[in-house]
Amino acid sequence: MTLRRLALAGAAAGAGGLAFGPVFGHALEAWRLDPELSFGFFGVPAAAAMTAARFRQLVAVADSGEPIGILVFAVGVVVLLAGDIAGVHALAGTAFLPITLGAAMYVFGVPAAKLLAPQLAIVTLTLSLYRGMLSSVGFPLQQLTANLASGLAGFVVTGVHRSGVDIYVGAAHFVVVQACSGMDSLVAMLCLGGLIVGVGTGSLPRRAALLALVVPIILVANVVRVTAVLLLVGPMGTAITSGPMHGGLDLVVFLIAGLTFWLAARALKCAPAIPAIRSS
After folding, report:
1. What's the domain count of the chain?
2. Which of 105, 146, 212, 278 has the fewest C-beta atoms lying within 10 Å of its C-beta?
3. Whose CA is closest to 147, among 229, 226, 247?
4. Is there a domain that residue 279 lies in?
């Protein structure tokens, strides 16, 4: 990796920082104000950690660069300008991937760009977020969760009936609000899954299949969580619906979902290799 290429990379990073300044500012507001998008704060650190883990590989495969990178870079510039002119920062954020990927191709070559692609995609995703983007998905998830959880609970206890997102267990009344839709867990698991897929091994189809498993795993886990609340309200009272007990149940179910995803990654041979520690 020559000094010239490092200088080019530094100049490109500086120019990119200026060009994407408003985009980063908009993204920061979205991450701060929308709890479901707060995972955006971890995008850049996660990408930096992945790049650091692959630094030796990047140095090994870096070559003289490919002119095709200019074309990819130009496409990104067009998207960035379109977003700026339209005043849509989320659209401008999508330009981060082609601009940075094209620059990497031109400066370091296609093999190095391929190694950087997952990290650049993570940052691009976080820059493309906007407030309310998940609201259209939350309510259908609330309805689905309420329907399935009430049906499962009805097999175990009597007196369970549902009206929309309202569930009644005897005299107790529950509302499956947006926080109970599972959206937060789904987004968190998608981020974790994307990170594992990015640094993991295995072919592209197997890794795509692994990432696709996130949605059914979280949906099932969330239905199980709400069903457990409905079943436990009888012996434990309303304490299970809020406070430390409710939070502990959420954590346990999410950890089980995470373990299930990890086992799926192992089964598909996509789990990241963990170096063994040998004693002297």
Report:
1. 2
2. 278
3. 226
4. no
* pLDDT of 275: 53
pLDDT of residue 144: 86
Strand 166-169 with 160-163, pairing: antiparallel
Q: What is the pTM of this model?
A: 0.68
| Helical ranges in the chain per DSSP H | 3-19, 21-33, 43-53, 55-61, 68-86, 89-94, 96-108, 110-127, 135-156, 183-199, 204-212, 214-236, 243-267
Sheet with strand 172-175: strands edge to edge: 160-163, 166-169, 172-175
- Dihedrals φ, ψ of 57, to 5°? -65, -40
Q: Whose structure tokens read 């977003």?
A: 83
Q: What count of other Cβ atoms lies within 10 Å of the Cβ of residue 240? A: 19
Q: Which pLDDT belongs to residue 279?
A: 45
Write down which residue in 70, 97, 127 finishes a domain: 127
DSSP H or E stretch at residue 173: strand 172-175
* pLDDT given at position 36: 74
d(CA 226, CA 247): 12
Over the Cα atoms of the chain, what is R_g?
23
Residue 96's pLDDT is 92
Residues 150 and 109 in one domain: no
Q: Encode 23-57: b = buried (16+ Cβ within 10 Å), e = exposed.
A: bbebbeebbeebebbebbebbbebbeebeeebeee
Residue 9 lies in a domain: yes
160 SS3 class:
strand
Task: Give per-10-residue mean pLDDT for the chain (280 aa).
Answer: 58 66 89 82 85 85 83 90 88 90 88 88 88 72 86 83 83 75 74 74 82 87 86 74 76 87 87 56
Residues 86 and 116 in one domain: yes
